[in-house]
Specification:
By secondary structure, the protein is of the alpha+beta class. Helices cover 53% and strands 16% of the residues. The chain contains 21 helices and 13 strands. The strands form three sheets. Strands 1, 2, 3, 4, 5, 6, 9, 10 and 11 form a nine-stranded mixed β-sheet that branches. It has a two-stranded parallel sheet with strand order 7-8. The longest helix has 29 residues. The termini are far apart.
Length: 450
Amino acid sequence: MRRRILVAVVSIIVIAGILLALLAPQILTQQGREVRLVVVTRLAPEEGNALRERFLKSDIAAKYGIKDIEFRKEDVGKWRSFVESGAVDVFLIGGYAVYNSLCRDGYLEPITSREVISRASSIGAEIYRDDKGNVCFISVSRTIFSFTVNNDYLSRYSLPKPSSWEDLASPAFSASLLKGDPAISFPMPSKSTTAARTLQLILQKYGWDRGWQILTIIGANSKIVESSEKARDDVATGISGAAPTVLIYGLRAVNASGGKAEFVIATQGLLPDISPVAIAKNTKNKEAAEAFILWLLSDEGQKALAELFYYLPYQLPKGTPLEEIYRKATGNIYPYDPEDSSKWELSAVYYFEAAIADSDTNTLLKKIWSKAVSLYLNGSISSRDLEALVAKLGSPLEIDYKGAKSVFTKEFASNINNMLRSPQEADLFKSAVKKAAIERYSSILKSLGG
């Protein structure tokens, strides 16, 4: 009897030993030992390498045994395939819409670490949940959009330094236009995230109708350029007096100009674009992935994001170039709603490019605004008359699209937004908008004696 018991005990010990040997690698991985994380991102390779070096030197990386972390810049269209193949642990940086879509379609693993969620909440980082209340992704920092000015250019034409988006559409900021040199370099929004975000900010902040009026006059005051890089370089070199810029481009313009350029904190008009992080659904390294997120939210990680990428962290980045900007930005960040803008963003981009940025319509806008400002400055029309003209000029057009006439309301823009993903539909829409714009502008110019 005792022998049977002894044999049974020995057998159990042997089996347990075999199971332990088989499970040891998995247990070690779960404890964060000898882990290699793969992060799919929109960061450039050199940016990913810089962040890798910072993270691997951290106590958190050592604690969880994360021996390496690879950052792979990949087009967002490929992200789902990486989840399906199990080739990614973490997603970092990219638009809200991308992460929201991944969350909605079940491609993200819920973030469950109490320490991570508590840390995010304590510093005010934005936490995004799915319909069941699971944490899908977290914003670890913010990219902010405003505008940069060149003070030498402003002095050359005696232009006041703008402090708000409305200032860029004021008659006082049009003096250089009257001399044939529009003050602003504004990128085509279909080719510039900065320009597209600027449209969204102005339309949300000022409302749909007033927003289009402001954008129309900004367009009249602008050189329309092909890219954010061109706009940045124009304001850095003094070719233009102002340009919408993301923070990092604004600071690069400041450095390139030798201090002649200045990134302006728009009064209650900074648009924050979140810098998200999420865990891929099929990761085998969830604990280590959450440890990486915890580091991004830590004092050390927040400082790294500020120093390396000029991302605005959720806590004061002491000792970095962003410390003063962080203080000035406090209270001036607009409560941007990405869910709202996602419903009409394509429609707004194509409308702007046809009604305002197209070479033919923009030429007419410049003629009208130059004439109107001249009449205003010489006392021929009052400020009330000028505002009435702005309302008439910039209010959403009635367009004949697909055989029906419709005013370009926010509701209409939302209804057609997904249709415009087709290049053919986009061209058809832009053609209808341009036709309506030229008819309106030609009529207004004629009424001004132009």
